[in-house]
């Protein structure tokens, strides 16, 4: 990854401290790892103690995969459109704003904005949920190239791809907010 968006949190919390916290308190620094979906971390925290960030992340992904398609769709639908109305009106949350900026999506030409609008609409029409790709791992060119390819997939494939991308988004947020004990 080249340039990363600055982490919104200040000092990363050591994993050992997270492991020792009461559940409600532990949710506070981690509840935003999955967009407006604190239920994932809440469930995964029951598996503490975690020895590594990847262990914590894997526990979260197990929660998602065990959740069933209705909740998985709820999770996907919790994500804002890239270059959507909320982004243009400056109404995204802090993390989403930084993520979209990291991909170069805040500095688009009129033509690129039109392309996003057209693709986003086609994607919503075809699948019934927003297009999700990890914006911090993809620049605008890669995202614009991925959209027509992703539109060719089946709905089942797209749900799987979207959940994997959501896992990547969450992992980067986790790496910003937590640190492994040394
Ligand atoms: N929607 C599509 N991609 C992303 C992303 O990387 N972050 C957020 N917050 N929303 C998205």
Can you tell me about this structure?
A two-stranded parallel ribbon has the order 1-2. It folds into two domains: 13-74 and 174-179, no CATH class; 80-166, UraD-like. It is built from ten helices and two strands. Mean pLDDT is 93; it is low at 1-7. The longest helix has 23 residues, at 155-177. It has helices at 15-20, 23-30, 38-44, 53-66, 69-77, 85-88, 94-102, 110-127, 140-151, 155-177; strands at residues 13-14, 178-179. The chain has 182 residues and is mainly alpha-helical. The chain is 60% helix and 2% strand.
What's the topology here?
Elements: E1 13-14, H1 15-20, H2 23-30, H3 38-44, H4 53-66, H5 69-77, H6 85-88, H7 94-102, H8 110-127, H9 140-151, H10 155-177, E2 178-179
Parallel strand pairs: 1-2
Guanine binds next to helix 7.
Keyphrases for this structure?
mainly alpha, 182 residues, 2 strands, binds guanine, 10 helices, 2 domains
Short description:
With 182 residues, this protein is mainly alpha-helical. The chain has 2 domains: 13-74 and 174-179, no CATH class; 80-166, Oxo-4-hydroxy-4-carboxy-5-ureidoimidazoline decarboxylase (UraD-like), CATH 1.10.3330. The protein is 60% helix and 2% strand.
């Amino acid at each position: 990854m080249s340039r990363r968006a600055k982490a919104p949190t200040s000092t990363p919390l050591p994993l050992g401290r997270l492991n020792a916290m009461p559940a409600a308190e532990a949710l506070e620094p981690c509840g935003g790892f999955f967009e407006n979906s604190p239920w994932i971390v809440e469930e995964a925290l029951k598996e503490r103690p975690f020895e590594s960030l990847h262990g914590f992340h894997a526990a979260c992904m197990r929660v998602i995969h065990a959740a069933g398609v209705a909740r998985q769709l709820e999770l996907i639908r919790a994500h804002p459109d890239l270059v959507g109305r909320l982004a243009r009106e400056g109404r995204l949350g802090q993390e989403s704003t930084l993520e979209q900026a990291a991909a170069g999506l805040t500095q688009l030409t009129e033509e690129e904005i039109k392309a996003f609008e057209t693709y986003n609409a086609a994607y919503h029409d075809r699948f019934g949920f927003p297009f999700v790709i990890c914006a911090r791992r993809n620049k605008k060119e890669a995202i614009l190239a991925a959209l027509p390819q992703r539109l060719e997939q089946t709905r089942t494939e797209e749900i799987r791809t979207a959940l994997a991308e959501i896992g990547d988004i969450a992992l980067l947020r986790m790496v910003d907010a937590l640190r492994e004990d040394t």
